[in-house]
TrEMBL record:
Pfam families: p450. Coiled coil: none annotated. It comes from the Eukaryota. Belongs to the cytochrome P450 family. The chain crosses the membrane at residues 205-229. This is CP39A hydroxylase. GO terms for biological process: bile acid biosynthetic process; cholesterol homeostasis.
Length: 250
């Protein structure tokens, strides 16, 4: 109706929507785009990191994250991640039905947090996970609105954000208490804490890191599995490839 690129005026701001791959590529490669300026207000709204602190930390934290998560370093995470995924999928059994989106969330959350944040740092018991997932799902679902709008318009989102920040006060305390001196033994969260200027903002950056780790990974995993399951030829090929490595164990 409006074409591949269109702008609307709402809440006193102009929102421009880019809906095609070519337009997105042109936008991200534009010399006029300043990433820090583009996301600073969204980060402030989403995790309450003030502009001054954001500009002070962004370059250093970005370099650290890019280095730790580079392709040459990913092997350091893959073993732990596979072990965690296997452990959390083991209870599924061999038959029955369930909601695929719920399954992906339930399996990926504990696997990812135990890999990036350290085992036992975030809540992973069934009762704690249920409360966490309710708050995180609300936080994640309304993130796009909340990153642009005042919190007073989104009371339930604001409540979940405060709950998550409170949780991360404990998460950060435990991560700092167990922070090893050897670089190789540190978790990604501990590396973040070592490089952060303004330690009082550690829970805010911890929440931002968790959101960044989950927000795209969950829908990508969901749609990948949905695509494989809805295409019999692709499903059979994937199962053949798996069987060639792991054998036909069922």
């Amino acid at each position: 109706q409006h074409g591949p690129v269109f702008t609307i005026f709402a809440l006193g701001k102009r929102f421009t929507f880019v809906t095609e791959e070519e337009g997105t590529e042109a936008f991200f490669k534009s010399e006029d785009l300043n990433f820090e300026q583009a996301v600073q207000q969204a980060v402030k709204n989403a995790v309450s990191v003030p502009a001054e602190a954001f500009y002070q930390n962004h370059g250093n934290l970005y370099s650290m994250m890019k280095g730790k998560m580079s392709p040459s370093n990913l092997h350091m995470f893959s073993g732990t991640l596979c072990k965690e995924l296997h452990e959390h999928m083991a209870h599924l059994g061999m038959e029955g039905t369930g909601d695929l989106n719920d399954l992906v969330r339930h399996v990926m959350y504990p696997a990812v947090v135990n890999t990036l944040f350290g085992k036992g740092i975030c809540p992973t018991s069934p009762s704690e996970i249920k409360e966490f997932e309710e708050h995180f799902q609300k936080y994640d679902e309304d993130f796009e609105y909340a990153s642009q709008m005042p919190e007073c318009f989104l009371r339930n989102w604001s409540k979940s954000k405060k709950w998550l920040l409170k949780l991360f006060e404990k998460v950060v305390f435990d991560a700092e208490r167990t922070n090893p001196s050897e670089t190789a033994s540190k978790t990604l969260l501990q590396h973040l804490l070592d490089n952060l200027q303004g330690k009082h903002l550690a829970p805010n950056y911890g929440l931002l890191m968790l959101w960044a780790a989950q927000a795209n990974a969950v829908p990508v995993a969901f749609w990948t599995l949905a695509f494989i399951l809805s295409n019999p030829a692709i499903y059979e090929k994937v199962m053949e490839d798996l069987a060639s490595v792991f054998g036909k164990a069922g």
